[in-house]
Amino acid sequence: MSKQRIRVGLIGASLDHGWGTEAHAPAFRSLPDYELVAICTAHPETARESARHFGTRLAFHDYQDMIQHPDIDIVSIAVRVPFHYEMTIAAINAGKHVYCEWPLGANLTQAKEMASLAKAKGLVNMVGLQSRCTPAIIRVKELIAEGYVGEVLSCHVTSILPGVLERPPYWAALGADPKKGANTLTIHGGHTLDALCFCVAEFQEVFAQLKTQVKKVRVMGTDQIIETTTPDNIMVHGVLTNGAIVSAHVASIPWNGSGWRMEIYGKEGTIVISGPGVVSFTDYRLQGARAGESELKDIPIPDRLTWVPPEVPTGSPFNVAQALRRFALGVREDKPVEPDFDVGVTRHRMISAIESSSQQGKIIQLK
Q1: Euclidean distance between CA atoms 313 and 298, whole angstroms
Q2: How many other C-beta atoms can be found within 10 angstroms of the C-beta atom of residue 204?
Q3: Which helix (H) or strand (E) is 100 found in, with range?
Q4: How far apart are CA 275 and CA 264, in angstroms?
Q5: In 3-state terms, the chain is what percent helix, strand and coil (to 5)?
Q6: pLDDT tens digits for range 287-323
Q7: pTM of the model
Q8: Cβ distance 285 to 273 under 8 Å?
Q9: Residues 6 or more apart from 294 whose CB is under 8 A from it?
Q10: CA separation for the pair 185, 175 (Å, rounded)
């Protein structure tokens, strides 16, 4: 592809809610690589409203119409998880490069099919595990590779976030059903454990317990109470391919969560990275100590790891924009990018192993 701006069709950008509105649209609009050409939402009136708001010249309420449009080079999918599979498959078959939010599919089988088709069609693809493009987390990976902690012996990871007693209305038909693929395990757990695997190594084996501690949830703004069987507390013990052992706790709790934290302990030192929110878009504090140092000290993040211009908003759009800069390079040079759908498959395989371990009460080996 030439140096012309890459033309984007975004599925999922209703102004009242959604990751597309909060992160994708602001990221695309602030990057010189892209032109946000089209918006697609579920209804004609919301599509027109979003198109006016974001300044796009095309508005669709049928994603099939949008992905067939000749003025669109890539499709960005930021809708609810159950729709990721059908929309991605359709976009790939229409010859479009695809950026799909995480989770890639509702399950491992869907993720494998999506990755296989994208590869067969020779199209650039990326999954929204944007922590891998976060400056602070990239720096952790570099420090480990540079030998800052020496041989990694153990890791402790937590993501404890509030909000389990009541959920938004759309969650009532989505997050309460494990088969929909959108819950604490797949979303917060997926992002949290992916950051660990990116920095240190993949899991070799897992032993897990999944628990639904809050079985009845109120729908926000209503008196409706719904029952849920999706896990809100995930405990994972495991061994990584480099021999390091892991303990992890990912939880949705009622109040005052401690946020996200990853501790990495090695023979030569310690690294701790933490933030008050979700790992993929929180504020980060990176600290470390080498052998013989009695206290952790702040570790600076090099400017070279920020790939986006100052115009990119902070918060939710920032790490998405970091990933999209990498995606643009892949589209222009017709080369694979990271994290691609194959990474998504690896993460789904890990989640499947965690579910199997909890169900069977035994250690599960990952291949």
Answers
A1: 24
A2: 15
A3: strand 97-101
A4: 15
A5: 35, 25, 35
A6: 999 999 999 999 999 999 999 999 999 999 999 999 9
A7: 0.96
A8: yes
A9: none
A10: 11
